[in-house]
Amino acid sequence: MDFASADPSIVKSIKQRDLLNTWLRLFARDQALPRMDEYQPARIEDELPDLVFLAVDSGAQPPRLLIQSDGRRMSSAYGNTGKGRYLDEYLGARLASIVMPVYYESIARRLPAYTIANIDDIYGRIVAYERLLLPFSDDGNVTHIIASLKTISEDGGFEIRNLMRGSDKLPVPKLRTIIDRDLFHRAPGRIPSGDILEFG
């Protein structure tokens, strides 16, 4: 599975961009993966329905990802909660074949991944499924991932219940990226450190 190189501007959702910017601020400090307990985005409570927290066993090959908590929207999209289950088993073989490589790439590269896939709801309306993965490390290896999952339809309304399992067709990947460029957070209206200004 091929992944394009991208910078943070690839992320469409303002709320996902805020999550990424918080990660970037921590990453830029030491040029290393942040610890999970350091990650405290503003208003994260508002995002919890769209977030999935996973513990990563990097010693396994391929890595195993245990769902520690899943947001309300993911549970609805997949038809049931995944808490306490391994992600690959929760997804099932069909979906795991296209979803798990994104997680594996993020873990292997130790960088955020951002993907968009299109999927039809039960009424045939096309829904864009935007996934942002943020890796964390408590011991040198990737130990946790936070997944932010957003759904949007140009048709306006759509049915999220069983969105991921209600169709015989698999999601169609539209964008697969690893965010590996411009890994710093640029505050609005400020000049990045290191830039030299010449006057006169």
Task: Explain what this protein looks like in three dimensions.
- The protein has one domain: 2-Layer Sandwich (Beta-Lactamase), CATH 3.30.450.20.
- 25% of the residues lie in helices and 26% in strands.
- The protein contains five helices and seven strands; from the N terminus they run E-H-H-E-E-H-H-H-E-E-E-E.
- It has a seven-stranded mixed β-sheet, with helices on both faces.
- Strand 4 (113-120) and strand 5 (126-136) form a beta hairpin.
- The longest helix is centred in the N-terminal third of the chain and has 17 residues, at 14-30.
- The chain is globular and about 50 Å long.
Helix share, percent: 25-40%
Any idea how many domains?
1
Shape: globular
Strand content: 25-35%
| CATH fold category name | Beta-Lactamase
Mean pLDDT over the full residue set: 86
Our measurement of the CA-to-CA distance between the termini, rounded to an integer number of angstroms, reads: 51 Å
Rg, Å, rounded: 17 Å
Name of the level-1 CATH class = Alpha Beta
SSE order, as H and E? EHHEEHHHEEEE
Tally of alpha and pi helices: 5
Write down how many β-strands occur, each being a DSSP E stretch of 2 or more residues: 7
Strand numbers in spatial order across the main sheet:
1-7-4-5-6-2-3
What's the name of the CATH homologous superfamily? PAS domain
